Input
Amino acid sequence: MQTRKIQIQHLQLELFHPQPELIDWHKLPRETQQKAKTLLVKLLREYARTPLPRPGVKAGNHD
Output
């Protein structure tokens, strides 16, 4: 029986792109700065309202 080797080319996904240049905050338009600040405040408020799991309490013990 003759066996044929099939070469499969594996495409490597680009999971880690090179870091873009750092953005100079002071060069951004004021409108963009304000939108970024507003979004950050919103995210921080949501995070502050999220209850953290207490140590020693295990979730999901339903016997």
